[in-house]
Amino acid sequence: MRKLKLQVSISLDGFIGGPAGEMDWMTMAWSEDLNSYVTELIAPVDTIVLGRKLAEGFIPYWAGVAADKTNPEQGGGITFTNTPKVVFSKTMEPAAAAEKGWPNTVISNNDLVQEVQRIKGEAGKDIYACGGATFVSALIEHNLVDEYYLLVNPVAIGSGLPIFKNRTTPLHLNLVKATSFECGIVGLHYSSQKREGQKVYP
């Protein structure tokens, strides 16, 4: 079965956005080693899943980057634009992707759990999940994430949008690797797969 990877930038106190989704707390420019880390992360990916709110900005932004030969991030823009995307929405009609000019994108109104499990059961490479907070929280709530890549920024914002708030039981993860980057961000890679002999205490 294909793995679903979640990569998010997160504050020290566990928020991925301010109370209204503000991102102004993310003031650290990514260093080259962090860019390489994320490039390696998405290399084995052939499907992107994301929620409607993020899609409204994410898809047009990266399409613009892909078309701009002077943009140093053009390679990433081309990757995100050319990779097939599934946008989950309860309000958008399936035809909206074509109407908005979103390339390589389909809109899914299906049940999130059933649809993600169907995608994971298909032949293919890894699946890359993006936010926003509501969509990511739903993936976590229903145990759909196989690999967590949390990019921890050295800042606490006090309040904001959490992604673990819908958990009704503890989420036990296995730390695969912690990576410190030159810019000060720390990457925490966790697996949801319980390792052999792992003890979970009440």
What does this structure look like?
With 202 residues, the protein is of the alpha/beta class. 30% of the residues lie in helices and 23% in strands. The protein has an eight-stranded mixed beta sheet. Helix 2 packs across helix 3 (74-82). The longest helix is centred in the N-terminal third of the chain and has 16 residues, at 52-67. The two termini are 30 Å apart.
Brief description of this entry?
The protein is α/β, with parallel strands linked by helices. The protein has helices at residues 32-42, 52-67, 74-82, 96-100, 112-121, 133-141; strands at 4-11, 45-51, 85-88, 105-108, 126-129, 147-153, 174-180, 186-191.
Provide the fold topology.
Elements lengths: L3 E8 L20 H11 L2 E7 H16 L6 H9 L2 E4 L7 H5 L4 E4 L3 H10 L4 E4 L3 H9 L5 E7 L20 E7 L5 E6 L11
Parallel strand pairs: 1-5, 1-6, 2-3, 2-5, 3-4
Antiparallel strand pairs: 6-8, 7-8
Helix pairs in contact: 2-3
Task: Provide key terms for this protein.
202 residues; alpha/beta; eight-stranded mixed beta sheet; 6 helices
